[in-house]
């Protein structure tokens, strides 16, 4: 029934037989779904790549945030290259172990340590993972426990126009948040320690995958900016206890401000100078969770998303979104942007669902192209290193650019009191949400974490069931959940589904294998970088806290 | 079935004497509140209060009352036999690995058999026999080993072929079997009814039974049980027995003086079916299929089948106010592997209709053996719990031993493997227990090969040198929570991984240990032996000497700086502990005991030392790292490091001196090695441990020093005929029986514990004798290796069992140590064992059914070790521990 397999079919040709008129419909969110349907019809038709497809592909394929802006030529080259590659005679599939090693390369798990069998934290632990589509990946993730205050910080960062900004934010943001949360005395103590050269109190305990690196070269610069921030906080001493929401907003804004300032001031060291400019000219969204007991705060800037997994009384799973996407689909965001600029600009502000027709997220770190005045941009670029001047993108000034800033890093903060039925939190970049509905995410993670698919537990009750029937039933159920046991990490499991799901919502190995064996240059057309953190909550502790409060 | 009427029992003094109690309770239910009898109030005091009305509590009450103790109150928080006992599968199986467990099961079987006649309560006892199946050759070997020990105990048992299995049981698929063990006298009972029968008999003997009475805690005064607090008032008492099953841990911790009872419950599942079309006969043998992890018995014409899955579900028992057992959920998905195994074993059952999947909790302990005995911290506080799902098999015997223990002060068998005091506080962490029971429950069915180790709850106690040794290739085993080196894998050499190295034959470390032994013989080795229990006993005056002279059999009034090997004996002259004591000064002593003596020895001495503030005893185990320098060049290494002459003229054997080694001062150096080889033990204050170790290794290089582990030590000590407490020696072995008369000073000028018994033995002779056996026709490469517990035959007749064994690299033979008894050929009566009796016999050792010729020796081959006579003479058959 599958004669095609033996033919010398290029990899991409799976997508070919689809009627040409479909292609204009392909969007970020659609591509995978269409892909899966065309995979199913490829047995019937044989044809080769049409130029039509190539064009359609350039215009509509998920070319991330600056889709139409640059590199069409490059892409075409890639395409030609891909064709060469694809027409090589061997058609190869990744074996399940190969698939697993790719999926698991970046997985990380952290379990909050127990003390004598008891975990007093409301967090049991978290799983995180990343699957790159860009090379190198532009997503970043961070997780840390606050040591001087209570609580845990977790965040995902989606970079665009390079990874520099996402990298910087992933290294720095939690320090800004932690400092914002610190009481006056602790700040004083830290400042005095720095002043007198004593050892510093550790502020954060990081939970990092070996691939999550910190820039050594910039640490001094970053530290100095941070120190200036806490010195100002000390001087400002409001005497009031810090409100988490306020602290989060301040930290986000301050860091973005520092990024901008560092780029304006520059650095005598040429490497650092180029670094701070790359950070400022690239951009990143951030979605950060702060968990302290039953208090969960989500601070979000951009289009990553936080979602709470809730287990209903009947055991089923539902999703509660704890962040608003800052993009063109969010009416309030569009309103906000329009409010902030003169009426005359109104029709140019949002074009093709992008800010100024260019940027998909409506809030972001960095991206000084959307924040600085034209004069400032020109001045910095001219005085900057040659590499910066050679880059067409940095030199390009957005059209209709009259009243900057058009972009802000200020987050929207949502506070949620955790309840015993709130079992987990998923933080993920848009790479996940483009391919999966939140309801499916809640179900898949929930079933993974509890180890049971939501299939009614079997009870024999008064029915007549024989051992043989029961055995058959159980074997069938086990086969269904066996995919769960392949993964030791909830985030990995979710990625497996996001990339490998067929239209029936189950993982199709063949599809998974194809998606993962796409050459670097093509991967980005079929999927985006995916970064996921799944935080598991401790319902016992949350229940106990709740009772105390009652 | 038993549950039906149990549920009807209500809150009254239990009138078991009334034979019509069943009907009576039924009536009571129908009459409900109108005829509610008044609960009988609790007595204000009693000699013994037993908490728990399951099989354990009722068995203890039964045996205590039989032994003449009458003033006993048994309290049950819910209803009698309503806990694990009610759900128990009711299989009485004698196929046990540990000898004392085997004896308990055998006794239980015999007790239950006559219980119905004795009490009039129907116990449902049916002698069905049991068949344990082997799917692999290794499994068959382990069954053969059990069969050997059952046979010499007089319990009928045979190894049968798959075909014979099919003849005994019509439903079994035998295609994947290699053999089986048939124990025809194993039985089935209704466990709840057995428990009720025991309660009935106890009640007739005067035991008061109160249901619906829960114990809140035990009040302690001056380290003794004073009273029991219940929800219905207080009972003053002298003895308390904790038979609270899965709640025993919490109950132990509820008082102000906590009693650590390390056990944790797991969910346990079994299946009940409707009867077959042609109902199964009630005498059909019970099937145990350990490779499939299941057991199957006939049950009311259908079957009852459960098992021990690989992924157990530990139960959370926090808050012990639950009356009886939760209604635990049936979990079919969890049961699936066991159901598969069942249908594979009995394919014809496919069409059989399910009745119920029962989920009942079972308590498991950290080492798979039950917990029995007196608390080391509270006198009069006894415990019997943690049956590892063999409660009904052990119930009778365990209750008997505990009753004997309470009445006589000691049980009639060596129960050290089950003694509560083998555990300390270190095993009572909840996390430890949860992790360990997850390992223990699957182990119930796993193959137990020689030298297996637990994998969970590890790296708890370690020497400061742990990381250093680990980096050098150390492989570890654990004793009393302490990590100890087995051997060192040389760089570049790969051993099999854990699963594959499980073997009954020659293990893969054979050559590695051989080279360590060779180094001990020819050069010098270092073994980290920090796990030893170390106490310091000192006083302002002569109190320490006087007390120790009374408690130990050897003469401790030696010049300062001498080390004495001595037993700590009980009244019957048996070894409670075997130790080395160094006299540090006129008034202070340093005592070294085996690792697992930490709790037992402490309690023993605490209870017997005079209550004198001028006499102090301190546990200094954690303060010292112990390094054993073994080998002829140890003397050179140490003298170079200390700038002091260490030759025998300057540092005679059994000598102890504080000296400096390298930069470190205050190192206690003793000229003993626990192996009979020349060398020294170094007791190093832990902060100097790394320094001294580094110095020793650096200096030792030119003498060919290397690390060694306990396997080498074991081989050395066994070929030198050194007995080891806990393995060879126990509370039922006297120095006279193991050739250690020279370690006893009967005439030391004062009385000591056990003196009378020893004098009597000296006069009348001994009834067992510790003997060394050299296997003659045993092929090390091809034959099964001995382990311990192998039957010994003299002129074809069973005379005893081995207690330990090792390969001697010097003799190039296996050496087994064990005890020889002399049973009268006609009456079976025990006779005195003389030297002639030992020497004039042809011996064979039975390893898994195969007999090997052995040469018996009462003294080690000193000629082989002639070049090292110097040491042997002093330490000869002296002493050793692991």
From TrEMBL, chain A:
Database matches in InterPro entries: PP2C, PP2C_BS, PPM-type-like_dom_sf, PPM-type_phosphatase-like_dom
GO molecular function annotation: [pyruvate dehydrogenase (acetyl-transferring)]-phosphatase activity; metal ion binding
Native source organism of the sequence: Chlamydotis macqueenii
Name under which the protein is recorded: [Pyruvate dehydrogenase [acetyl-transferring]]-phosphatase 1, mitochondrial
Cofactors, names only: Mn(2+); Mg(2+)
EC number assigned by the record: 3.1.3.43
Main localization category: mitochondrion
Location of the protein in the cell: Mitochondrion
Matching PANTHER family: [PYRUVATE DEHYDROGENASE [ACETYL-TRANSFERRING]]-PHOSPHATASE 1, MITOCHONDRIAL (PTHR13832:SF627), PROTEIN PHOSPHATASE 2C (PTHR13832)
Span of domain PPM-type phosphatase: 123-537
UniProtKB/TrEMBL annotation, chain B:
Domain of life: Eukaryota
GO CC entries: mitochondrial matrix
Residues covered by the Rhodanese domain: 48-91
UniProt keyword terms in alphabetical order: Mitochondrion, Transit peptide
Cross-referenced Gene3D superfamilies: Aminomethyltransferase beta-barrel domains, D-Amino Acid Oxidase, subunit A, domain 2, FAD/NAD(P)-binding domain, Probable tRNA modification gtpase trme, domain 1
Subcellular location: Mitochondrion matrix
Main location: mitochondrion
Pfam families named in the record: DAO (PF01266), FAO_M (PF16350), GCV_T (PF01571), GCV_T_C (PF08669)
Ribosomal protein recorded as keyword: no
PROSITE patterns found in the cross-reference section: RHODANESE_3 (PS50206)
Record text on subunit structure and interactions: Heterodimer of a catalytic (PDP1) and a regulatory (PDPR) subunit.
UniProt similarity note: Belongs to the GcvT family.
PANTHER family associated with the record: AMINOMETHYLTRANSFERASE, PYRUVATE DEHYDROGENASE PHOSPHATASE REGULATORY SUBUNIT, MITOCHONDRIAL-LIKE
Function: Decreases the sensitivity of PDP1 to magnesium ions, and this inhibition is reversed by the polyamine spermine.
Protein name (Swiss-Prot/TrEMBL): Pyruvate dehydrogenase phosphatase regulatory subunit, mitochondrial
Source organism of the structure: Chlamydotis macqueenii (Macqueen's bustard)
